[in-house]
């Protein structure tokens, strides 16, 4: 059973997680920039969860009903930490902040575990929910309304711009992924080098953002 | 009662329900049309004698006119949509849900009528705060409650239809991605060979339904905020937030209705021209762009003059709106024209209305692109140019596609076919009245005549405006009479003895 697991991927997931929470520049940028914190850092926390979840699914893929439940828990987890009070609480208390980061990692695991058993209709429901969440966040922050007291108003506008700019991607990526992901997955499986290429690309992306 | 009796009964009940949807929709277009003519005549009267409607009455009629006309499109489209679900997706007729949605929409109409005619609610169709929550004595707060509940009910009715469609499309095509035609991008052969190739009509209604669920959830969020403010006056309602959330709902919902009516174009053009029209990469790609621009980001063009909106978003709004025109103008219209060119078909009423509607969609899209250009918007913002462009889509676009659908499906639904010159009369009255009315609308917009004004004489109005407003009335009346002819034709068909 265990031979199904791909050890480099699991190691890569943990390395990515450590990178997101332990790399000083990421931590520093996240502390001072709402958009960076909410998007770049939390996505790097979510990704290892996704990779690990895919490995766990090989050992024991949950049934459809369990998958729906896991997906709901993941959505609630992610939605909850975006509520202004929860976000500010996490920002001001180190232990709650750690809990928030672990939540994003766990949400990644849950999404990855549940996705294979969810039908196309439920997957699209998740996409619509993601768009609604992003739109609500964008509508609230477009005019520079300071919903998170821990960050200045100007950063809220920046967040709104990011949300609106990325909404087309939030729709197109899941729409086209089923068509293109199998080919990417084949490349991933057949070429271990991709693990290192992937990590290098992420580092390059972050360095690029730092210079911007 | 054996199984075939049940099937016949269902079929008969189903037909009656579809007719009920269509007749209700036609009653709405006539009623909304009367309101439209009344408010335009009121504006004209102010130039020569005095307004005969007081401003609060004018604005409540205007509010009713807007919702009533969108209501016409929704009721007619959902009615036709049920027909398409049953015919194309081969599902068992969900008779109870069809009836439920019908009565929800009727309840919504009643609430809108009560709030605008009895309660004098007059905040306009977009219901932007603070007006619904702070009417300043213009109308009682219960009217706001009733009106917004009516809007919410329209959303609920539409949501049931959208979910029903998504479930049926998912089952019939093998997945939502397949229903959206995404398999045309796959290099591998059709992953579901047992399913038929994606129909463009299915693509258009699936795009409408999927984006519709998003729009209605945004509506629940924005209306929910207004309801909370009505309940608790201490609740702080952020005007910018509610404006954006409202447009994420309203702009998206209005636009996806156009997508639904394009399904009629995709269905009827091949039927009349005898030329196939399948999903291909360029068309599906154009639809994806429309979903992500018109459906998700183009709403921002309503904020072009809002100083609090960052410039990057204003620019993005302009680009999004430019891109959103591709499926209409560049792909679908081109596809429709190439199919009809040289096909030698007879120009039956349905086909005439389709092509006139497409022509007006091109006019409306061009006007929208002009208005979404930041420089032009500084001049045209909140002028009559804006209603001119959306009347091009609604009154002379989607409405015409729906007339075409009724002409096409009426013999099927009633089981009767009559020979009459009335469709031709209907077409020419719509052509002359509609285009003439649109022209006066655009000209008034170019003169900078502001929109949502009961009486232009209260401020310095541009020279020539009075003549334009005056001329628009006979055109509006001709258009309205044309629809009366259509209603007469439909009733005549239903009650005729011919088979």
Describe the structure.
Chain A has helices at residues 7-22, 24-32, 34-59, 64-81, 84-92, 94-114, 120-141, 153-190, 193-211. Chain A has 212 residues and is mainly α. The longest helix of chain A is centred in the C-terminal third of the chain and has 38 residues, at 153-190. Chain B has 499 residues and is mainly α. In chain B, 74% of the residues lie in helices and 0% in strands. Chain B has 15 helices and no strands. Chain B has helices spanning 3-48, 55-88, 95-118, 141-173, 176-179, 200-231, 239-273, 281-297, 311-324, 326-340, 349-371, 374-380, 385-414, 422-446, 465-495. Chain B starts with a helix and ends with a helix. Classes of the chains: A mainly alpha (212), B mainly alpha (499). The A-B interface holds A 119-121, 124, 128, 131-132, 135-136, 138-140, 142-145, 157, 160-161, 164-165, 167-168, 171-172, 175-176, 178-179 and B 166-167, 170, 174-178, 180, 182-183, 185-186, 210, 213-214, 217-218, 221-222, 238, 240-242, 244-245, 248, 288, 291-293, 296-297, 300, 303, 306, 308-310, 312-313, 316.
List the keywords:
heterodimer; A: 212 residues; mainly alpha; 84% helix; 0% strand; globular; B: 499 residues; 15 helices
| Average pLDDT of chain B | 91
Straight-line N-to-C gap of chain A: 46 Å
| Strand coverage percent of chain B | under 5%
For the largest beta-sheet of chain B, the strand count, sense and barrel status come to: none
Helix content of chain A: over 70%
Structural class of chain A: mainly alpha
The separation of the N and C termini of chain B measures: 26 Å
> How many DSSP helices of chain A?
9
Identify the quaternary structure here: heterodimer
- Counting DSSP E segments of at least 2 residues, the number of strands of chain A comes to 0
Rg of chain B from C-alpha positions? Answer: 22 Å
How many beta-strand runs of chain B? 0
Roughly what fraction of the amino acids of chain A lie in strands? under 5%
Helix/strand/pairing class of chain B, anyone? mainly alpha
Element order of chain B: H for helix, E for strand: HHHHHHHHHHHHHHH
From the alpha-carbon coordinates, what is the Rg of chain A to the nearest angstrom? 17 Å
**Tally of separate helices of chain B:** 15
